[in-house]
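Sample pair:
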Amino acid sequence: MEGELPAAPRGSSGLPAGDASGDSPCALLPAEALALDGDEDDLEVFSKDASLTDMNSSLSPTMPTSPLSMINQVKFEDEPDLRDLFITVDDPESHVTTIETFITYRVATQTSRGEFDSSEFEVRRRYQDFLWLKGKLEEAHPTLIIPPLPEKFVVKGMVERFNDDFIETRRRALNKFLNRIADHPTLTFSEDLKVFLTAQAGELSAHKKQGPGLLSKVGQTVRAVALSMRGVRSRPEEFVEMNDFIEAFSQKMSLIDKISQRIYKEEREYFDEMKEYGPIHALWSESEEDLADTLGGVASCLDRCCQATERRLCGLSEALLPVVHEYLLYSEMLMGVMKRRDHIQAELESKAEALTYRKADTDLLTEEIGKLEDKVECANTALRADWERWKQNMRNDIKSAFADTAERNIHYYEQCLATWESFLAAQTDLYAKEPSEDKP
């Protein structure tokens, strides 16, 4: 695209308000399975167990008291929009080969950055490509908080493979993943992100092969396991508190996620029953002349309430459930970040201990210790800064999601109440007329 890129308005999470994830019509998830089957890369699992602790430490205890203006009162100030990288994930396609069946998504990019060869790019990526990008970002920035991807999990026979609802849910999650990265002050300039957004399939495959070899990866894994078994002796107090927060946050989000999914399932089952309830009254009215108006009125009320319930379910599946589940996945990511930070410190402590008890190679150990001290300080600084940024985004996102859900609930119950009150008023008027009509 020639010329200046349009500035997209931002929501509380820093994503464009007109994000493609919200453009498609709402498709209600099936009540019997919120985690849908996919290819060998695909399935999101929405059920974890934990015990609920007090949420007041993370969320504001005060809420607006005026119901209909609640959502308008919960506002969050955004920084000036200086983004110059806009990414959209859309147009899922199914690919069938003799070996496998998988889904690819179009990743369209618009940018005004000088390091890109063009202002527009369009590539197709499958889930494992997103997984590769996430791994490269974690490798290059071990103590930055990388946005989570939907889980890689398969339950055969659970639901139909490549279900449209699952594909749409995954597309939205992948779209959010890339926009979170594009909005991050450090990750947005990653060379691996640039390759992911611009390289065609063959180029990307070649780039993937440039990573560390299998033996190198195995060696790194063995060393990481050894250091994790050893643990750290003196984790700084701020990171002890950070770790405690993550553990408590994980428990809270796990239980909230589980309960939210159960509520959605029960509401969906209620909606399915209501769809059958109204037509029964309509059929009944055809055989009961004296009750025709009353039964027809009940059928009409049930139909309007059914439509309102469907809109409410759409709101839950688009506004609340994805936010809750994303931050459950974030809690798992944060635990991984803390482990990687501890691995770096444990390696430093191991070298320092070796220097204490060894006389040979002291110069080499001293040099390695100096490098590790710098590495630990850089890791701590990066995590410290990213932690504050993540907490602010988390609080904004969760407040916004909960307030939006509360507003939708109020609107839903007001609609249903008005529907039935109108029916009762009509019946009262009808009943009041009957005695006068019966008089001689």
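The longest helix spans residues 362-438.
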